[in-house]
Amino acid sequence: MKIYFAGSIRGGKPDRQAFRQIIAHLKRYGKVLTEHIGEVIPGESDLIDEEIYERDVLWLREADALVAEVTSPSLGVGYEIGKAEEWGKPVLCLYREAEGRRLSAMIRGNKNLVVKKFETMKEASEIIDNFIIGCRGHSNL
Ligand code: 6K6
User: Fold this and answer.
1) CB of 85 closer than 8 Å to CB of 110
2) Which atom belonging to ligand 1 lies closest to the Cα atom of 14?
3) Do residues 65 and 3 lie in contact, with contact meaning Cβ atoms separated by under 8 Å?
4) 76 CA distance to ligand 1 centroid (A)?
């Protein structure tokens, strides 16, 4: 199974430790195409933006599912969710309730997406396990 993990890079302040823990859990189920998102550092990479966009869209196309951490708002993550939905891929959006912030209605109000709140990594892991079971139920993964 190929999983595309999406999380804020230039958007709202990301929780990289949570990203890394989610990625580590996803790796039990297959290849995480975007593992580097847990490791982003200032300056990011030598790739120019066009190269990042083209590579990521290709990865998203070949992915069997998208798992997005959406606590921090991110234009890029929102775009990836919209594309994955358009291409009929299963999408899981995980978020933590943060004071003074409400998740976009365009995510929480979309019945095509699985949107789940988590607090602990144990909860996030259980949500991921159920989501993957659901993906397998709908395909040959
Ligand atoms: C290299 C290592 C870490 O970061 C880089 C260079 N930048 C990006 N690399 C890979 N994917 C990226 C990069 N910038 C944005 N993205 C994609 O958009 C990822 O798949 C994220 O899910 C999403 C983040 O978008 P913004 O708007 O928060 O940057």
Assistant:
1) yes
2) 28
3) yes
4) 7
